[in-house]
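Whether sequence alone determines local backbone shape is best considered at the level of individual chains. When preparing material for the folding task, we compiled for one chain both its residues and its backbone structure tokens. No coordinates are needed to read the tokens, only the vocabulary itself. For completeness, the protein is quoted in full, as a sequence line and a line of structure tokens:
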Amino acid sequence: MENLIHSLNGLVWGIPMLTLLLGTGLYLTIGLRFLSVTRLPYAFKQLFKKPDSNDEGDVTPFGALMTALSSTIGTGNIAGVAAAIAIGGPGAVFWMWMTAIVGTATKYSEGVLAVKFREIDAEGRHVGGPMYYIKNGMGSKWIWLGGVFATLGVLASWGTGASIQSNSIADALNATYGITPIVSAVALSVGAAAVILGGIQRIASVASKLVPFMALSYLAGGLLVVALNIEAVPAAFGQIFRGAFGFDSAGTGISIGLLMLAMQKGVARGIFSNEAGQGSAPIAHAAAKNHDPVDQGIIAMLGTIIDTLIVCSITALVILTSGVLGADCMPTAATAHDILANGQAAGCDTGAPLTVSAFDASLPGIGQHIVAIGLTVFGFTTILGWSYYGERCCEYLFGEKSILPFRISWIVVVFLGAAALMFEGEIKNLVNLFWLVADTLTGMMAAPNLVALVVLSPIVFKLTKDYFAAKKKAAEEDSAIPPAE
């Protein structure tokens, strides 16, 4: 079974999927005339605009973005970046950036379609996401594809959003503070229940407070480490750019194996972190109080910028400037193909322990607390955000009556994910295998969504063109009005 899942994971995150993810993002970027780059200042301005009283929706646009970010800013920003660097080398960071840049257009398109094709359920909630824009945008013959996405969404949410996050939090708290996993399991499940049983309004309210506070706190700690090692920053960027194109650390030339390793791990970790193209974030953006799809799409694309280009980059620079990643831990041309085959680093720290070592090297006695608290809060907000995604997918498949049973199942899975650390042997091995299954399901979710994005892209392009044409016309009319005497 383990070999089968490893093979499936390699297929899902292989060249075809990476090409589809990057290709779709690049196609949308060009089709939108690089709007996702040129309109960033306008996007930040729109983020803090108050909703009109006539706007329909369940949460503010800011709340929708924070809910989306609550699920993306998580263990991937701390442990995932470290794993990408340890396994794929510093060059993986460059491909994470490239994934984020083209991913802004993907996130924008997801946000536009989420609001354009959302529905109101029997209880008055605004529901949407890939399953709805597949059904309502692509027609009845494609309903099965929406069902595939929703099914994968439920399964991935239990894995990526509930069990893996609670397991990571319990592990971090046990390693740093000696808190037994069963205590963490109880605290996390009770905390999750208190929030998710209140629905999207309570999730958005908590996320709107926790996400900005923790993200800014983590960034402050990371920037302090980078400032203390400022002389190593140029070398760190040099490692990133050389590794991105397969240059061996010894300077002996280009290795195709190193190039593919950096690209695969960078793109995979980038997508796992910011979820651009995966189709989860538009489920949150569909609930926004925003009557204009383009308005929400512009806000949605900020998620990728904040998550990958800012938070993940800080983690990467902390690791690369701290000096904890020695030359003996870097992949080489000789080892690249073996690492690609089995997905393991060369016997060195990876994941959260590497990030802890990097922070502690510059901030002794403090760094481990930054990482442990960061993992706890980021992981908890991810539990909240993914609970909403899984709930909407479950509702799409089984109707409104399935919502409460799903919420209860979520709380149970959160408890079991943390409590699993109490066991050794086969149970622990099963947890590690579950990580791989969740990673595989995350990749599989992207396929139906990417098909929908390409098919419905003409609608996105037209809505965008009409929106900015109307804005330009309104501005010209305002400038033509003579000032009042």
Q: What stands out?
A: The radius of gyration is 22 Å. The domain at 2-41+59-466 is CATH 1.10.4160 (Hydantoin permease). The chain is about 75% helix and 0% strand. The mean pLDDT is 83.
